[in-house]
Amino acid sequence: xxxxxxxxxxxxxxxxxxxxxxxxxxxxxxxxxxxxxxxxxxxxxxxxxxxxxxxxxxxxxxxxxxxxxxxxxxxxxxxxxxxxxxxxxxxxxxxxxxxxxxxxxxxxxxxxxxxxxxxxxxxxxxxxxxxxxxxxxxxxxxxxxxxxxxxxxxxxxxxxxxxxxxxxxxxxxxxxxxx
Length: 179
Known about the structure:
This protein is mainly α and 179 residues long. It has 6 helices and no strands.
């Protein structure tokens, strides 16, 4: 008579431990998805800040009109691109920034001005470009971890991810200009 009580208690304990483990995995997956969303928001903020710095440089009258127009157009396209074309527009902005800043003598000419405006604009541009690179790395790392977690058999079998879309990587040319 006592044997069946022990068997029942054993299976209740096994079911409880399994439920705790599944709950822990589901919570971890949820936290990974939150991390992806947070990293994406930080990346978006960094991209907007870089576009604003590029627009500030283009509007500063420190560049010739043609270069200002090219840079302003690239920054505007990056800010207004839809999700499908955002990576291409951001890469175009990176290339435009490098083409402008990497011109021979450009940095020296801007920092050598007596008013200090050129140096301030370049510092903001350099800082924002570095933050884009860091934010993209953090975002892609979060996406990688979420994708690895979602490939686990238990996550797929129990559909613990629910209807959450599989996060995608954000690949752009984010090499900063040589400031």
